[in-house]
Amino acid sequence: MSETIITIKAGLDGLKTKVAGLKARAAKLTATRDDLIGQAAALEQTQTQALAELKDMGIVPKDLTPATLESLALAASTELADAIAVLEATVTEAEALVNGPATALSLE
């Protein structure tokens, strides 16, 4: 009878270990779930802000076809290229002013 009690106790100890392992896994899954919920909330906030910015630009989300997006990207690219050209011209003028007429003569 004593061996039966020892066997039962060992079985219970094994079950306690398994339960502790399951609790740890459940806690890890809960933390992962909470992290995913936080990420989803952050994405939703980003989406809301992006939609508000698009609305301010007069773009309705249903209008966002690939052609519209390509057009917007092309317009932004053109604006950026123009801004870079103006900046390069300004830097060239500034260099000419800093270096004085000697540099202007040596370039000719």
SSE layout:
Layout: H1 2-56, H2 66-99, H3 101-107
Could you characterize the architecture of this molecule?
The chain is mainly alpha-helical and 108 residues long. It is built from three helices and no strands.
Structural class: mainly alpha
For the report, how would you describe the main beta sheet?
Answer: none
Poorly predicted segments: none
- End-to-end separation in angstroms reads 110 Å
Task: Write out key terms for the chains shown.
mainly alpha; single chain; elongated; 0% strand; 3 helices; 2 domains; 108 residues
Short account of what is shown:
The protein is mostly helical and 108 residues long. The chain has three helices and no strands.
